[in-house]
Amino acid sequence: MEVRDKHAYLRAIGIVAGVCVVLQMALSPQLSVFGGTINFMMILAGCVALLTGSRYGVFAGFFSGMLYDFTMPVPAGLMMLMLSVAGFVLGSGERNRLQEQLDASVKLFAGVCFGVNVAYSIALVLTGAESSIISAVLGHGLASTVLDTIFVVPFLYALSRADFGQAFSTRIARKGYRKLR
Question: 2-169 maps to which CATH number?
Fold first, then answer.
């Protein structure tokens, strides 16, 4: 008898979402390095997109961006748009690329994160929330990308090592078969 756990992805995403939301509320506003902050909602959208694909990545990006916009003193709606596009780009390649391509997933996340942070910094300058474009791009964009990439690695590593295939099985795995004569 073999029992498959069809909701293992949902449980894993729920755990990652809970951890990211708590860290976004508690740690992210308090920690700033060279003008950059950790965007745990970007990490959440990236993890969901890399694990499930672009359809759910867009939804995760939208709702993560909404939570980010509601908790930070920034123009509302801007991060929703950025994370929705990032979720689509990260998930557009293939579904569950974390199982075999962890290093490529981290590189892809870093590139998309850099694009989102630079575009967000430029948008903050255009809306008047930031005064200097150099400090916004280098301070916020580059520093936030480095922090997000450092903090996404444990999440991606944990999701890449999770076994979503079977939760319980009474079948005995056999190494080989005997030849019949």
Answer: 1.10.1760.20
pLDDT value of position 2: 56
Q: Can you read off the two tokens belonging to residue 77? A: 């709606």
User: What is the DSSP secondary structure assignment for residue 141, as one 8-state letter?
Assistant: I
pLDDT in tens, 41-95: 999 999 999 888 888 889 999 999 999 888 887 778 888 999 999 999 988 876 6
The structure's pTM equals 0.82
User: Would the pLDDT of 128 be above 80?
Assistant: yes
pLDDT of residue 63: 94
Could you tell me which of 153, 92, 145, 151 has the C-alpha nearest to residue 117?
Answer: 145
Which 8-state DSSP code applies to residue 95?
A: T
Q: Which residues in 134-168 are b (16+ Cβ under 10 Å) and which e? A: eebbbbbbbbbbbbbbebbeebbeebbebebeeee
Which pLDDT value is given to residue 19? Answer: 92
Query: What tokens were used for 39?
Result: 């965007």
∠ CA 142-64-7, rounded to 5°: 120
Q: Which residue ranges make up each domain of the chain?
A: 2-169
Reduce the secondary structure of 25-83 to three states and give it as a string.
HHCCCCCEECCEECCHHHHHHHHHHHHHCHHHHHHHHHHHHHHHHHHCCCCCCHHHHHH
